[in-house]
Design goal:
This protein starts with 6 loop residues before the first helix and ends in a 7-residue tail after the last helix. It has about 180 residues and is mostly helical. The protein has a domain of about 90 residues: Di-heme elbow motif domain (Multiheme cytochrome fold), CATH 1.10.3820.10. The protein has twelve helices and no strands. α2 crosses α3. Helix content is about 60%, strand content about 0%. The radius of gyration is 24 Å and the shape is elongated. Its cofactor is heme. GO terms for molecular function: electron transfer activity; heme binding; metal ion binding. It comes from Selenomonas ruminantium. InterPro entries: Cytochrome_c-type_ET, Multihaem_cyt_sf, NapC/NirT/NrfH, NapC/NirT_cyt_c_N, NapC/NirT_cytc_sf.
């Protein structure tokens, strides 16, 4: 029996081919959309709510180094991309319905910033760090601190962009010991 004699199978193959082509087109369109929404220009110009953050970003060392929004605010890998796009969809709903809080505040910021990807050299040996009075030690990270514990506002606060955290920040935890240094 020939394929032409079986119209049902030919019909099914045609539908499978159309479905396969549709999947390829959908995958291609999704890839283009993901790439487009990962650009800093998309983040800074699409939503007027992001304007203050975009302006401060433009003055930051991160902007000068070519570090984009997604580099910091999207976890690496497929799982991070999916989570980021899901969050973006929720934010789009808030934007369209006019429910975006003013000003925008990042909740759980310490969970949504990937400083370690570029700054992993900052988790130093405690003895070497102590000799140079460098606070970037594993001990701080082991005690639940993270980069934003001391560097809150980096990139999105023009004043913080220009300053390295001073001893005042250290005093919040080390009031008794800071005078001895």
């Amino acid at each position: 029996m020939k394929l032409s004699e079986l119209p049902d199978k030919k019909f099914k193959l045609k539908h499978i081919a159309i479905a396969g082509l549709a999947c390829i087109v959908l995958l291609g369109a999704s890839t283009v959309m993901i790439e487009a929404t990962n650009t800093t220009s998309f983040c800074s110009t699409t939503c007027h709510e992001m304007e203050p953050m975009a302006k401060s970003y433009d003055h930051s060392i991160h902007a000068k180094a070519g570090v984009g929004c997604a580099d910091c605010h999207e976890k690496p890998g497929l799982q991070g991309t999916i989570a980021s796009k899901w969050q973006g969809t929720q934010e789009l709903f808030l934007h369209v319905t006019g429910q975006v809080p003013d000003p925008i505040k990042m909740t759980d910021a310490h969970k949504k910033v990937n400083c370690y990807i570029c700054h992993q050299d900052k988790i130093m040996n405690s003895e070497v760090a102590a000799k140079h009075k460098d606070p970037h030690t594993a001990k701080h990270f082991e005690n639940g601190m993270n980069c934003l514990t001391c560097h809150t506002g980096v990139v999105h606060d023009d004043k913080v962009n220009m300053d390295v955290p001073g001893r005042e920040r250290c005093y919040t935890c080390h009031l008794d010991n800071m005078g001895k240094l």
